Amino acid sequence: SLKLPSDSFKYLGWCDIEEHGVRGNQLRCPRVREGPSEEELFFRKEEHTLKKRKQVTDAEKWEKRLQENWENCAELNLSFQDLGDLYQVENFKRILRRLIRVEKLWLVDNSLTDLSAIRLPRCRELNVNKNHFTSFKQLPKIPQIQHLSLAENNITTLSGISDFRHTPLESLILKRNPCEFQERYRQLVFSNLPNLKMLDGIPKLPEDCSPPDVRFFYRMCTIL
C-alpha cells in the first residue's frame, strides 16, 4: 500500500520551545499552533503522544503573552496555516483579536468562513484570498481599510458591500468570486463605493459610472 505524505510524521508530538527570545512580530510567516488539551488527547486515545504537562503558572502565561507581542505588529503574514482542528482555529482567532496595531495583514488560504467578531482598527491592507467567505458581512471590522483583496472566495452577492462606503477603500479585488458574473458587476460596485479607484486591478473607467437615467433606459423596450 502507498504511504500517505504525513506518514513520516505520525510519531511526532507537540512540544513547547522554552527559553528562546524570538517574538511573534519578528517572524515573517509564523505558524499559529497550540497543542490539543489533555482532555482532547484522552478522547482521541492519543494521550501517550505527550509527556505529562507541568502546571503553568499565571506568571509564565503572562511572560508567554508578552513574548508573542502581537499587539505591536505592524505587518504580519499568517497565510497557509492549515487550520484543521478547532483548537487551532480558536488560537488563530485569539491572535487576530490582539492585532490592534497591524496595518498590513495577509490571511491567504486558511479556510476562513467568518471573522465578523474580529476588529482590526488600524488595518490598511488586508489579503484574504483563497478562503471560504460567502458574504461581505463575514469580514472583520476594518474601518481604515484602503486595499482589500478577496480573490477566490465564494461571495455570490454584492449585498453588504456598501458597508465600506464610509471607509477610505481605494482598491478592491473580487476576481474569481461568483458575484463577478453578476450583470453590470463593475457599475454596481462603483455605485455602492463612489470613492473606489480600482476594481480587480483595473482603474475606474467612464463606463463604470453610468448615470441613473441611462441605466434605466437600458431596461426599457423601444418599439418602432
TrEMBL record:
It comes from the Eukaryota. The keyword Repressor does not apply. InterPro entries: Leu-rich_rpt, LRR_dom_sf. The keyword ATP-binding does not apply. Keywords: Leucine-rich repeat, Repeat. PANTHER family: GENE 29133-RELATED, LEUCINE RICH REPEAT PROTEIN. This is TILB protein. The gene is Lrcc6.
